[in-house]
Inverse folding.
């Protein structure tokens, strides 16, 4: 077995409560993570049109050859299967999470887990090296995610949490890594998450509800082995090279934030603790996923919201009143308390943010509330308080009252109320694609919106957002000059996006001939989909650090991409792949995913945004570089709408670039065979869905 | 110091690892690096430095760092009947294991007064091992020892581990937990006390 790989994939049949092994070697060509997950799903899931709640749904949880080694920020764990969150179609989708689960899986001797069937009663799966058992979860059912994990720790390791514990002839001081659901998943919410440790969530896709439908409360993994590395010295040297050239030096930083404790500046200089996005004023430490030097989260002196980050904390920031945000009660900071509760319930923070704003808007319109057309007894007069947030989360997690609609996801809730079409037209509801909240500005930051629409969910990949949007955005926030000019940043990035290097117009967000409807923009989307399918999602390189185009900590401000990604992979595996080899692997995985969606019914005609994207103008500044009148500059994109006809022209350009039929969006046989996917072409042809 | 040396007959180590528990981010890069440079593979259970953490505990109690203290009165050496556990006078008096002499009895593991024991059982070789300040780290790229560089020190992204040459205060191990944070740490919004 190639170094880096454990050699075995666990296959769990929950119906029979049986375990078998898949040889990783059969799937090694797909890299790891997502690539292996898609290939296994293709092979094992015969009816790809079923609901995500169907017991036959095949869920894969895959690590990568880099997980558990000293590869920086390369320990993400990839989850795939049919996701019930997608609307109106439950697309085959993905999510991933950090922490230490992927590493523990490798130490136990496995590259991943495949889950099929449905247990006849609540179970949790206990993996301790080569011992796998199905345990009764009846006494865990109803516990929140933190209670669940701590109880499983106690059951697996006893109370000896700081000692060496014998595990057969081996030993460990570490706790089991647990992936579990909270009450939201138990109640089959389409917006329930899988949770690991404090706040590592596989958030999008609804996999928490999938686990609930399978009666699977948790998977616990404890491993005492290790990961074989082809060249330990090369790996150490690569780590030191990476840190030495690109890290934020906590003792002597090259570039500090403009003010103290300014976490929103983190994407610019990678300072630790910054993915909280909001100021954490109580004492804390930075906290890292295993093997990551960026340490983007925190653990607090109150323990509230330990490891919480991103939208879990941004949601209360955006929606709590100023008075509430400032209040510190016996519960601790209100903001931290909201995030803590959210993580305990196991709920999707993006959907709650969108739902929170949507409900208060409908309340203000007079259509939702006590005695209104849409009956809802939430205390809207207390919107912006902790009390409202607690009631809101509780009713969704427990499917109480209007929470029963909201637990279906905000898009489906709107549909139940007969409001989806109208509110998607006016922009009251900002779910731009496939039933997912828009995340970034879809009319301007099109790497996000286009990539999401060509795929199956909010991509949530900030590869271009950090250098192109956050840099000018933070400059405006702090009233300073951007750390790099618009021309400077697009030229830097354009040198690094192999194999499409040399075209800065790939990053022109303007509406001119070189902008967002151009052939250059087709290359941007293709690059992004291929990179993330392999380097990000198959090898587990974390979105917070990778790709790295611009790095203000480097003397020349040039980031680690494309040199860094293959450096660690080759040191671990002993292979000698290039960055472009990885891009081609990503293109293959992307086309396999495309084929799965086509079997689920995908067609070009479906790939359209919610109406507001074409009709409602951008109303708040969204800074991005544009090329206008022969020069580059940062624009606020105010007033923009997406031109429907020009976007359709862009789709045609994109399909042509990918080698897909321009009328259907389906890959052609020549494209698939060129990628070694001839059997996939055969299947599409049998189903009369092959591009002509 | 002369009195200490004379009373037990073991010369003091010339190098000690000290840590800043409040600065540690729990990435366990130190554990991974330790096993990589010594064993050639990434195996945390074989690491001679252990980071034990709990995601749900309050800072700073959420992380414990277990490092060998290079004790002035090394109980592990006293317990060893074969001479495997020894003071390496050629390498700054570091307390380390000569695996060729180890019979795998494990008495040194039990003798270590700290929890978790700083002596590590190697189940592949049926011997013990322990922190040697990277004196014998075949995959390390620097010279180790009390006048060299240690893998855990060099890889730590928070610079929370440091090699010192003076014997730390022994009472309650306070001398091994030090404050390595400066004003830049405070700028990030973390406590500096």
């Amino acid at each position: 077995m190639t170094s880096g790989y454990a050699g075995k994939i666990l296959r769990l049949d929950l119906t029979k409560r049986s375990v078998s092994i898949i040889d990783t070697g059969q799937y090694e060509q797909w890299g790891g993570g997502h690539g292996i997950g898609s290939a296994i799903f293709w092979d094992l899931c015969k009816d790809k049109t079923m609901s995500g709640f169907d017991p036959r749904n095949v869920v894969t949880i895959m690590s990568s050859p880099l997980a558990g080694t000293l590869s920086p920020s390369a320990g993400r764990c990839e989850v795939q299967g049919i996701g019930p969150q997608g609307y109106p179609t439950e697309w085959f989708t993905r999510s991933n999470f950090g922490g230490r689960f992927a590493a523990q899986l490798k130490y136990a001797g496995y590259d991943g887990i495949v889950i099929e069937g449905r247990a006849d009663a609540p179970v949790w799966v206990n993996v301790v090296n080569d011992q796998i058992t199905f345990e009764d979860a009846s006494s865990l059912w109803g516990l929140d995610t933190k209670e669940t994990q701590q109880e499983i720790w106690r059951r697996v390791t006893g109370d000896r949490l700081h000692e060496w514990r014998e595990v057969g002839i081996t030993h460990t001081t570490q706790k089991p890594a647990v992936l579990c659901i909270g009450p939201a998943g138990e109640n089959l919410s389409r917006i329930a998450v899988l949770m690991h440790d404090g706040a590592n969530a596989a958030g999008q896709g609804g996999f928490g509800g999938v686990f609930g439908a399978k009666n699977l409360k948790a998977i616990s993994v404890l491993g005492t082995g290790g990961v074989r590395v082809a060249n330990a010295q090369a790996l150490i040297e690569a780590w030191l090279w990476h840190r030495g050239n690109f890290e934020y030096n906590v003792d002597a930083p090259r570039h500090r934030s403009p003010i103290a404790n300014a976490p929103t500046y983190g994407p610019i200089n990678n300072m630790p603790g910054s993915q909280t996005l909001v100021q954490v004023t109580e004492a804390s430490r930075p906290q890292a996923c295993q093997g990551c030097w960026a340490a983007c989260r925190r653990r607090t002196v109150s323990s509230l919201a330990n490891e919480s980050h991103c939208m879990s904390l941004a949601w209360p920031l955006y929606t709590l009143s100023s008075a509430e945000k400032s209040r510190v009660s016996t519960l601790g900071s209100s903001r931290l308390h909201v995030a803590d509760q959210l993580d305990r319930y196991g709920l999707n923070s993006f959907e709650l943010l969108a739902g929170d704003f949507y409900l208060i808007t409908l309340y203000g319109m007079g259509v939702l509330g006590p005695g209104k057309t849409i009956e809802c007894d939430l205390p809207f007069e207390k919107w912006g308080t902790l009390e409202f947030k607690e009631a809101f989360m509780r009713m969704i997690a427990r499917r109480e009252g209007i929470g029963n609609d909201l637990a279906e996801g905000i898009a489906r809730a709107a549909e139940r109320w007969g409001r989806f079409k109208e509110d998607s037209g006016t922009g009251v509801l900002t779910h731009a694609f496939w039933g997912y909240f828009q995340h970034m500005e879809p009319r301007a930051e099109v790497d996000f919106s286009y990539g999401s629409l060509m795929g199956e969910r909010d991509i949530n990949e900030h590869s271009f957002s950090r250098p192109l949007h956050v840099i000018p955005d933070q400059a405006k926030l702090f009233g300073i000059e951007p750390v790099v000019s618009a021309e400077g940043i697009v030229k830097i990035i354009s040198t690094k996006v192999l194999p499409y290097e040399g075209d800065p117009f790939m990053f022109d967000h303007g509406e001119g001939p070189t902008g967002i409807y151009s052939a250059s923009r087709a290359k941007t989307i293709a690059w992004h989909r291929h990179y993330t399918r392999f380097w990000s999602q198959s090898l587990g390189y974390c979105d917070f650090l990778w790709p790295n185009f611009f790095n203000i900590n480097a003397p020349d401000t040039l980031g680690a991409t494309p040199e860094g990604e293959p450096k660690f992979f080759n040191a671990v595996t002993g292979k000698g792949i290039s960055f472009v080899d990885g891009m081609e692997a990503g293109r293959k995985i992307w086309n396999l995913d495309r084929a799965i969606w086509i079997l689920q019914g995908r067609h070009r005609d479906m790939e359209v945004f919610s109406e507001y994207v074409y009709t409602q103008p951008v109303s708040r500044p969204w800074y991005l570089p544009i090329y206008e009148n022969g020069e580059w500059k940062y624009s606020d994109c105010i007033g923009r709408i997406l031109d429907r006809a020009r976007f359709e022209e862009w789709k045609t350009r994109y399909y042509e670039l990918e080698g897909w039929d321009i009328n259907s969006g389906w890959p052609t046989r020549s494209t698939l065979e060129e990628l070694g996917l001839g059997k996939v072409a055969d299947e599409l042809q049998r189903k009369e869905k092959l591009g002509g | 110091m002369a009195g200490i040396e004379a009373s037990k007959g073991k010369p003091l180590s010339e190098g000690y690892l000290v840590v800043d528990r409040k600065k540690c981010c729990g990435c366990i890069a130190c554990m991974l690096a330790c096993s990589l440079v010594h064993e050639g593979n990434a195996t945390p259970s074989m690491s001679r430095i252990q980071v034990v953490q709990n995601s749900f505990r309050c800072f700073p109690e959420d992380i414990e760092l277990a490092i060998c203290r290079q004790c002035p009165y090394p109980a592990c050496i006293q317990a060893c009947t074969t001479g495997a556990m020894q003071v390496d006078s050629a390498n700054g008096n570091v307390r380390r294991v000569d695996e060729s002499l180890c019979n795998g009895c494990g008495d040194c593991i039990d003798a270590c007064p700290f929890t978790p024991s700083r002596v590590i059982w190697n189940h592949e070789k049926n011997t013990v091992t322990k922190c040697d300040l990277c004196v014998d780290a075949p995959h390390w790229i620097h010279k180790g020892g009390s006048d060299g560089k240690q893998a855990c020190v060099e890889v730590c992204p928070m610079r929370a581990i440091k090699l010192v040459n003076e014997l730390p205060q022994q009472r309650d191990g306070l001398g091994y937990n030090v404050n390595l944070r400066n004003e830049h740490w405070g700028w990030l919004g973390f406590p500096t006390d």
Remarks:
- Chain A has three domains: 8-222, 233-430, 446-686.
- Residues 32 and 64 of chain A are 5 Å apart (CA to CA).
- The two ends of chain A are 40 Å apart (CA to CA).
- The first strand of chain A starts at residue 8 and ends at 13.
